[in-house]
Design goal:
Family: Belongs to the gluconokinase GntK/GntV family.
Order of helices and strands: EEHEHHEHEHHEH
Number of domains: 1
Oligomer: single chain
InterPro entries: P-loop_NTPase, Shikimate/glucono_kinase, Therm_gnt_kin
Protein name: Gluconokinase
Strand content: 5-15%
Keywords: ATP-binding, Kinase, Nucleotide-binding, Transferase
CATH topology: Rossmann fold
CATH superfamily: P-loop containing nucleotide triphosphate hydrolases
Catalytic activity: D-gluconate + ATP = 6-phospho-D-gluconate + ADP + H(+)
Distance between the termini: 25 Å
Helix content: 25-40%
Strand order of the largest sheet: 1-6-5-2-4-3
Largest sheet: 6 strands, mixed
Low-confidence stretches: 2-11, 178-182
């Protein structure tokens, strides 16, 4: 786990849980939002049909495909400036994260990082999801880890969800609580 000082400590933070497909963004993001008592959104729900069709066909999105999607996500974050929020979003490149930060300087990033084989196994085990295993390698190839000047924390995605959420809450300065959630990929 690597840390940089949080930009805006406390439960009203804007947090983006980021990483490659299958790293546990949705599970961790939802648990973190519940823990912080703030709204939650999954970036997958903001993709236009054309993006979903492209990914479903095994074709990676390019920056042109992502631009309107990222703009909508940044707008959603700006709309939650007062209340705080958690967004699960791949945010694989620095310039994507910069777009999410536009007008949202206090955004904290939680990079869920880990082993490619674990991700491939998780993606293969998700029935009905539009992201095929064939795109896992392109996700890792595109990934640009958080840089030293980006506010956030990098955490091993293979830790239990409780531990990840507790570490993020501590990073944000939120009071500690004990949670009982399963490891990512385990049945609830």
């Amino acid at each position: 786990m690597t840390n940089s000082p949080p930009a805006s400590p406390g439960p009203a933070a804007l947090v983006v849980v980021m990483g490659v497909s299958g790293c546990g963004k949705t599970t961790v993001g939802a648990a973190l939002a519940q823990r912080l008592k703030v709204p939650y959104a999954d970036a997958d729900d903001f993709h236009p049909e054309a993006n979903i069709a492209k990914m479903s066909a095994g074709i990676p999105l390019d920056d042109q495909d992502r631009a309107p999607w990222l703009s909508a996500l940044a707008q959603w974050l700006r709309g939650h400036h007062e209340t705080g929020a958690v967004l699960a979003c791949s945010a694989l490149k620095r310039n994507y994260r910069d777009l999410l930060r536009e007008g949202n300087d206090e955004v904290e990033f939680v990079h869920l990082h880990g082993d490619r084989e674990v991700v491939a196994r998780r993606v293969a085990g998700r029935p009905g999801h539009f992201m095929p295993v064939a795109l896992v390698d392109s996700q890792f190839a595109t990934l640009e880890p958080l840089e030293a000047d980006e506010s956030g924390v990098t955490i091993d995605f293979d830790l239990p969800v409780d531990d990840i959420v507790a570490a993020v809450a501590t990073h944000l300065g939120a009071p500690a609580v004990i949670l009982t959630t399963p490891r990512i990929g385990e049945a609830k």
